Amino acid sequence: MKILVTGGAGFIGSNFILYWIKNHPEDEIINFDALTYAGNLENLKSIEDNPNYKFVKGNIAQSNEVGPVMSGVDIVVHFAAESHVDRSILEPSSFILTNIVGTQVLLDAALKNNVKRFHHISTDEVFGELDLNDTNKFNERTNYNPRSPYSATKAGSDHLVRAYHFTYGLPITITNCSNNYGPYQFPEKFIPLAITNVIEGKKIPVYGDGLYIRDWLYVEDHVRAIEKVLERGKVGKTYLIGGMTELYPNIEIAKKIVRLLGKDESFIEFVKDRLGHDRRYDVDWSKTKEELGWEPQHNFDDWLKKTVEWYKENESWWKKVKSGEYKKYYKTQYEDGSR
Ligand code: NAD
Ligand code: TYD
């Protein structure tokens, strides 16, 4: 089987490739990635000489770059995206180009090359926000109601993927997954930003009142869910993926992280809130379990601890990343007061 992975140099994409090569050594993987600020080939160093793995640098929004890599591909697993909400608030245009136009360019090429499956990786953020005080969860029937430029572009891409199935018969599947954490996550996202800041002696910036809730999922659980969907998912269907419903507000997570690093709460500071900040996400993945036999296996406390250990042991990985462009972004987002 020849698998084209887009965005395979990013956080979830690289975890997916490492897992796939280990568990399906007979398959051929092409990693197609533009290497934006978020792409890092160091994540894949351990497999770079594997004869069944190949990296091709390219932009999913450029049809002349996508065309050649799509030839002979059986399965597309589409991770490539601009993925950070705060950056989408500062500068939405690249989100529209990559997440919407890029997805359409890939869909056209997949159709032209008769791929057997186009699997699109999406997010629970397309459903909007839940109240803090009720117990509703997102499910397969929840209406789309995206509220940030990021989630609006992911929603647009989901609609396009489904439209290519209904209109042209492209064999697609979609997963809408909750917030991931784990190794190789870019330190702009909350958990790795918090861990690496404390290691560097800086504070954890907690937005607003800190009472925002995400449905955290360890990245390997997400990767296993994608594997199940590729193996057993029904063409045309959307599967929801989420964590073990240990719904900690951000401030609690910040407190857990400082404790794990042997520091006190003076390492936490409340800062200006994110614009349009979604209050709560929570995913009902029971249908996915019923149909595919998948469920999350990594609980939050143990795997947050292991994630903290990973960042402690891999300082050279994130220190390189937290330089150059990252410093400019951090200044605009957290220090200038301009947002
Ligand atoms: P990431 O930002 O870590 O990685 C994105 C990757 O895509 C990078 O390697 C980058 O170089 C590449 N890329 C960006 N624009 C590109 C372009 N125009 N052409 C080719 N490659 C390009 O993202 P992630 O956190 O690994 O997320 C991967 C996917 O999963 C995204 O589609 C995201 O929406 C989705 N998702 C993420 C989460 C999460 O918690 N991180 C949760 C649910 C869904
Ligand atoms: P993030 O990791 O950016 O994921 P998303 O916005 O896609 O859910 O943020 C997770 C939560 O943490 C979210 O409620 C915003 C909050 N947050 C902070 O409080 N401080 C920060 O510096 C960041 C990046 C996020």
Automatic annotation (TrEMBL):
Provide a Gene Ontology MF annotation, just one: dTDP-glucose 4,6-dehydratase activity
Q: What reaction gets catalysed by this protein?
A: dTDP-alpha-D-glucose = dTDP-4-dehydro-6-deoxy-alpha-D-glucose + H2O
Tell me the InterPro entries matching this sequence. Answer: dTDP_Gluc_deHydtase, NAD(P)-bd_dom, NAD(P)-bd_dom_sf
Q: Which domain of life is it from?
A: Bacteria
| Cofactor(s) annotated in UniProt | NAD(+)
Keywords assigned by UniProt, alphabetized: Lyase, NAD
Q: What is its EC number?
A: 4.2.1.46
- Biological processes per GO annotation: nucleotide-sugar metabolic process
Residue span(s) of domain NAD(P)-binding: 4-307
UniProt keyword annotation of Transmembrane helix present:
no
**Would the keyword Transmembrane helix be found if you checked this record's keyword annotation?**
no
Q: Which Pfam families match?
A: GDP_Man_Dehyd (PF16363)
The record's PANTHER family line, in alphabetical order, gives: DTDP-D-GLUCOSE 4,6-DEHYDRATASE-RELATED
UniProt similarity note: Belongs to the NAD(P)-dependent epimerase/dehydratase family. dTDP-glucose dehydratase subfamily.
Q: What is this protein called?
A: dTDP-glucose 4,6-dehydratase
Q: Which organism is it from?
A: Candidatus Woesebacteria bacterium GW2011_GWB1_38_5b
Q: What is the lineage of its organism?
A: Bacteria, Candidatus Woeseibacteriota
